[in-house]
Amino acid sequence: MRHKCRKQCSHRTLHCDLPRNVLDEILMCLPFRDVVRTSILSKKWRNIWHGLPVLTLSHTLWKPEEDLADLTSNLVKIINHILIFHTGPVTKNDIQHLVLRLPIRGGLYKMPLSFFTCFELRHLTLQNCSILAQPSFKGFDRLISLELRDVAISSKLLERLISCSLLLEQLVLQISGASSNVIEISAPNLRSFDYTGNIRSLSLSHREYYVGAGKCNIAKFFESFSALELLHLNDMFFVAGAGEVPTRLSYDLYCVKHLCISSIYLSDLNEVSCALCLIRSFPNLQSMEIKVECDDNDIPALESLEVERFSDVTFNHLREVKLMQTNGTIPEIQLMKLLLAKSPELMKIIIEPCVVEESATVKILTEIIQFQRASTKAEVVYKLDKHPNPGPL
């Protein structure tokens, strides 16, 4: 009897004597599933969770860990069901890191209106989503990184999303285009830019850059990347119609430390000239990754890769180079020779060839081993997927 009385007193003290804001703070520290379970304690507890100002939801509410690939199937239903019972206002939304990588099943997932109230967002990643414009949306002013992959979004909303995020440092855009295919954005603190898509016109910091429109000004475009540390170019097609490409930019981009080119045709003089122009203009470049494409050994771009043309340039900070899809063509070999001769701090060149014939491999390695190396520590690592690695040279 005494034990029962003590339990009733304790229960009455917890529920009746504590101020509501204190009780809310206690409940908000619990997992949401446990918060809802308090409704079975008594009639007085039945509706306590309905007025919580903060709702912390986890994917484990609707799917077990092993079924994350299908976690969106009941997401909307469950959230709507929760909000039907929730009577009080949600006064706090402090989501700082949001990642939604959704499978394509029945179309793109439409982002709800509540998405635009996540004012504390620092990192945002969306995949296979659709974002509809909201006139009152003024951007996420605390956003540091943004990654959009296969996201349906208008050009105006994309401009607003990026340009209103003045703290933005990392930007990944993998989109096939937006309405009008003309994007004007401002990102003064951008340090990493990874772009894949077919947007016809891109403007950074009010400097227009046209792709395939005969008005590409490479010098003005890259001038916008004053704070960029990593530059990833999906390909070099944007130099089409650029006219004469300068040997180097009229300024140096000292912040750029990592350069990745997913596809470059060594048979195209403009693409090779542009890549070399950038490499010359990044004096603090530390690493470089290039996937090469080449069909012909006798090409006009070959002369531009000669070591003699780089008498006034040394890659003083370049430490690692990765060349992919090589097949031993003359321009590829010439590029390797150039990098070995002009990189005094080089530690490693990793070569991932697309050829597997033993005779071709022997020929390539025989040539490379004879090249002069500015760095005594430089190694050439030749990787073959189907054969043992012959080791560093």
Automatic annotation (TrEMBL):
<dbReference type="InterPro" id="IPR032675">
    <property type="entry name" value="LRR_dom_sf"/>
</dbReference>
<dbReference type="InterPro" id="IPR036047">
    <property type="entry name" value="F-box-like_dom_sf"/>
</dbReference>
<protein>
    <recommendedName>
        <fullName>F-box domain-containing protein</fullName>
    </recommendedName>
</protein>
<feature type="domain" description="F-box">
    <location>
        <begin position="12"/>
        <end position="65"/>
    </location>
</feature>
<dbReference type="InterPro" id="IPR053781">
    <property type="entry name" value="F-box_AtFBL13-like"/>
</dbReference>
<dbReference type="InterPro" id="IPR055411">
    <property type="entry name" value="LRR_FXL15/At3g58940/PEG3-like"/>
</dbReference>
<dbReference type="Pfam" id="PF00646">
    <property type="entry name" value="F-box"/>
</dbReference>
<dbReference type="Pfam" id="PF24758">
    <property type="entry name" value="LRR_At5g56370"/>
</dbReference>
<dbReference type="InterPro" id="IPR001810">
    <property type="entry name" value="F-box_dom"/>
</dbReference>
